[in-house]
Amino acid sequence: MKRLIFIFLLFISFAQNGVNNAFSANEDFLSKDQELRAIKLFKATKCMTCSGESLYESQSAFAVEMRSFIRRQIVSGMTDEQILDILKQRYGSAILGDTPYNADTYFLWITPIFLAVIITVFMALKLGRLKKSAQ
């Protein structure tokens, strides 16, 4: 039991260490409002080298550089939309945390709905056949 508690505490300490080090580069030159804007943008964009992590969560060199880039753009007076447009131009819409709804992504949005309808119809037909065979 003591060993299990030790392993658990060790795991928690390593996990917490990663969270504390996520923001280590040049936070000093932003006001509180600017830093909140930056964090919002970090959460709205994905790290291109880490699968499924936002810039807010990632500790890769790419994420550190992108966080620094976003902070510099905020200090220079750019709006959130302008910053996101620059990132989309450089890396495509894949850098966005949410998949945009446009002609390029219709297939991604419609496929789950289409599959749900097909599965529902199939299950209804199957249940209907089972009820008929049971009678």
Structure description:
The chain is mostly helical and about 140 residues long. It has two domains: about 25-100, Helicase, Ruva Protein, domain 3; about 100-135. The protein is about 65% helix and about 0% strand. The protein is built from five helices and no strands. The chain has helices at about 1-20, 30-45, 60-75, 80-90, 105-135. Helix 2 (about 30-45) crosses helix 3. The radius of gyration is 23 Å and the shape is flat. The termini are far apart.
Short key terms for the protein model shown above:
single chain, 135 residues, mainly alpha, Helicase, Ruva Protein, domain 3, 2 domains, 5 helices, transmembrane, membrane, metal-binding, heme
Secondary structure layout plus pairing:
Layout: H1 2-20, H2 32-44, H3 61-75, H4 80-91, H5 106-134
Helix-residue proportion:
55-70%
Shape: flat
Number of domains: 2
CATH fold name of the largest domain: Helicase, Ruva Protein, domain 3
End-to-end distance: 57 Å
The number of helical runs is 5
Tell me the name of the CATH homologous superfamily of the largest domain.
Answer: Cytochrome C biogenesis protein
- Unreliable spans are none
CATH top level of the largest domain is Mainly Alpha
Number of strands: 0
Find the structural class using helix and strand composition. Answer: mainly alpha
Tell me what portion of residues adopts beta-strand conformation: under 5%
The radius of gyration computed from the alpha-carbon positions, rounded to a whole number of angstroms, is 23 Å
CATH 2nd-level architecture of the largest domain = Orthogonal Bundle
Q: Average pLDDT, to the nearest integer?
A: 83
Order of helices and strands: HHHHH
Largest sheet: number of strands, sense, barrel closure: none
